[in-house]
Amino acid sequence: MINRHRWIRPYAWSDVLPWTIYLALNAFFVWYPDGSMETAARRSGLLALTNVCFTYACPSISLLGDILGAKLRICRQLHHAAGFMACVESVLHVLLKWTTKGNIQLGERRMVYGVVAASCRLALMIESIPIVRRLVHPIFFLSHYILAISAGWALGMHLPRNPSGPWYLVYPTIGLFASTCLAAIGIVFYRNGFLGKTMEQGHNRTAG
C-alpha cells in the first residue's frame, strides 16, 4: 500500500474516458486533415499554446475552484490534463521543427527560446510525477512557479512579433490571469475585514 501511486496519481476508471477523449482530440487536430510534418509542427505549437491558456488562467488551483464553484479535484484534473498536453505538444512542436528544418541553429533566438520553453514544460511534467514530487516536496511549489514563469517568458520571446502571430491567444490569457489576481486580492481584503468595515459603515448609514 505504501508504494501505490508512485508513478501516477490516484484515479477512478471514470477519469480514463475523458482523458482518452481529450488526448484523441488533440492528436486528431494535430494530424488531420493535412498530415504533413510542417503543418503538424505548426498545429502542435498552436494547440500547446491553447492548452497553456488554461494553466495560466489563475495563480492558484484552489482559487480557480472558488471562483468557478467547482470541486478542487476537478480543477486539479483539468490543470494536470492541460499541462500534460501542453508539454507533449511543445516537445512535439520542437521535434517536428527540428525534423523539417534539419537542425536548430543556436543563432536563431526564437528557436532557442522555443527549446527553453519546451524544456521548462518538460521539467514541470517530470516534477509533477508523484515519486519525483515527494523528493522535491519542500521546494515543489516554488520550483513549479519559477518553471511556469520561465516557460511563459520564453514562450513570449519565441512567438513572432508580426501581427499574424498567435498573440490572439496570449492577450486573453494575460487578461484572465490579471482578473483572477485582482479577484484573489479582493477576496483576501474581504476575508480579513479590510472591506467589511467600509461596507458595514455604509450599511449603518443607510439603516439610520
Q: Using the CA coordinates, give the radius of gyration.
A: 21 Å
Largest sheet: none
Secondary structure class reads mainly alpha
* H and E string: HHHHHHHHH
Q: Alpha-carbon distance between the termini?
A: 64 Å
Helicity range? over 70%
Low-confidence stretches: 202-208
Domain unit count: 2
The coarse overall form would be globular
Q: Beta fraction of the residues?
A: under 5%
Q: What is the overall pLDDT average?
A: 80
Number of strands: 0
Our count of helices gives: 9
Q: Can you describe this structure?
A:
With 208 residues, the protein is mainly alpha-helical. The protein folds into 2 domains: 13-157, no CATH class; 175-208, no CATH class. The protein has helices spanning 16-31, 37-55, 61-68, 72-101, 109-127, 130-135, 140-158, 167-191, 196-207. Residues 202-208 have low confidence and may be disordered. Residues 45-151 form the Ferric oxidoreductase domain. GO terms for molecular function: ferric-chelate reductase activity. Pfam families: Ferric_reduct (PF01794). Its main location: membrane.
